[in-house]
From TrEMBL:
Pfam family, one: RNase_PH_C
Functional note: Catalytic component of the exosome, which is a complex involved in RNA degradation. Has 3'->5' exoribonuclease activity. Can also synthesize heteropolymeric RNA-tails. Catalytic component of the exosome, which is a complex involved in RNA degradation. Has 3'->5' exoribonuclease activity. Can also synthesize heteromeric RNA-tails.
Family membership: Belongs to the RNase PH family. Rrp41 subfamily.
Biological-process GO terms, alphabetical: gene expression; nuclear-transcribed mRNA catabolic process; rRNA catabolic process
EC numbers for this chain: 3.1.13.-
One Gene Ontology cellular component annotation held by this UniProt entry: cytoplasmic exosome (RNase complex)
Source superkingdom: Archaea
Transmembrane segments annotated in the record for this chain: none
Protein name, per record: Exosome complex component Rrp41
PANTHER family found in the cross-reference section: EXOSOME COMPLEX COMPONENT, EXOSOME COMPLEX COMPONENT RRP41
Gene behind this protein: rrp41
UniProt keyword terms in alphabetical order: Cytoplasm, Exonuclease, Exosome, Hydrolase, Nuclease
Length: 246
């Protein structure tokens, strides 16, 4: 979190945030499934100003073979930010943050994927951030979950995600870039909504116990709203497939 300029107000006296939203409003979210012909499954998510592409390949044979698991597939996730995704050009290739977020996203997705059905194989998930505006890890989880479903990978449920945080002493939903930079805390959460299982829970910043619980509840509510959009995007994809086959 950065020190906020004194003249910058993240919430005005009427309760409106810097981008015109109220405290508990999501940014605009659009999703499209099946956007890459050469992948087994793919999805594209626009979330606020975030633009994120996810592709899934597999199950497929692992190389080198010593990585194989005799009882299950392994899920491999690569999260990457394109050099042009941020205002100051990012150095190409993996860095410490992208490696960490790759592991976080893999941990969020693994509980949903039925890996035992595909021993000695890998399922590879690639997440490319084309434009970043805070919340790329939760948007990446949402895109990757859609791409896995599009690839026909058996799953216990879709994984959905959202973040809440604290700005100007208020708990709010779905922080944008300015709020993320100058806010007090950020709490990303991922869930499997059918059973209300939490697969990711992190916190960056400082909150009281009561504030933390409020932020988690709010993030879960946001994730459930995103989950409905995921379902709609998948329905649209397969309605289009059926129409093409007719």
């Amino acid at each position: 979190m950065m020190e906020k300029p004194e003249e910058l107000k993240l919430i005005d006296e009427n309760g409106y945030r810097i981008d015109g939203r109220k405290k508990y409003e999501l940014r605009k979210v659009n999703m499209k499934v099946g956007v890459l012909k050469n992948a087994n499954g793919s999805a594209y998510v626009e979330w606020g100003k975030n633009k994120i592409l996810a592709a899934v390949y597999g199950p497929r044979e692992i190389h080198p073979k010593h990585l194989q698991r005799p009882d299950r597939a392994i899920l491999r996730v690569r999260y990457n930010m394109a050099p042009f995704s941020v205002e100051e050009r990012k150095k190409p290739g993996p860095d410490r943050r992208s490696v960490e977020i790759s592991k976080v996203i893999r941990g969020a997705l693994e509980p949903a994927v039925i890996l035992e059905l595909f021993p000695r194989t890998s399922i590879d998930v690639f997440i490319e951030v084309l434009q970043a505006d805070a919340g790329t890890r939760v948007a990446g989880i949402v895109a990757a979950s859609l791409a896995l479903a599009d690839a026909g990978i058996p799953m216990k449920d879709l994984v959905s995600a959202c973040a809440a945080g604290k700005i100007e002493d208020e708990i709010v939903l779905d922080l944008n870039k300015e709020e993320d930079n100058y806010g007090t805390a950020d709490v990303p959460v991922a869930i499997m909504p059918i059973k209300n299982d939490i697969t990711l829970l992190q916190m960056d910043g400082y909150l009281t116990k009561e504030e933390f619980l409020e932020a988690v509840r709010l993030a879960i509510k946001g994730a459930k709203a995103v989950y409905q959009k995921q379902r709609e995007a998948l329905k649209e994809r397969y309605l289009n497939v059926l129409q093409e086959e007719e």
